[in-house]
Amino acid sequence: MPKTPHKTTLPPTTPRGQRLESSPCTWDKKLANYASQYVSEKLIGDCNLEHSGGPYGENLAAGGATDFDGADAVKMWVSEKPYYNYDSNSCVGGECGHYTQVV
């Protein structure tokens, strides 16, 4: 059975920046409901990768390999880490927007 976005899970640990200090993550029910609604609309729609245009940022990914999954998407986004400047909290050349969403 091919993997679908809603049936894909991430590995138990996701890559994190070594120099980052942050509070523990907490579940945001409002955000979860927003994401669920967006996915539901896309699954009955055209499934094109389009940002929601809403109040939240989101990372989108697609791969040509039949075994491309959520973990592969995260690896792609984390590969932008070299373009992130920790001291200024900014992206070099605007090339790390996906990475900032991961961390």
UniProtKB/TrEMBL annotation:
Pfam families in UniProt: CAP
Region (Disordered): 1-23
InterPro entries on file: CAP_dom, CAP_sf, CRISP-related
Highest taxon listed in the record's lineage: Eukaryota
Limits of the SCP domain: 4-103
The name this protein goes by in its record: SCP domain-containing protein
Classification lineage: Eukaryota, Viridiplantae, Streptophyta, Embryophyta, Tracheophyta
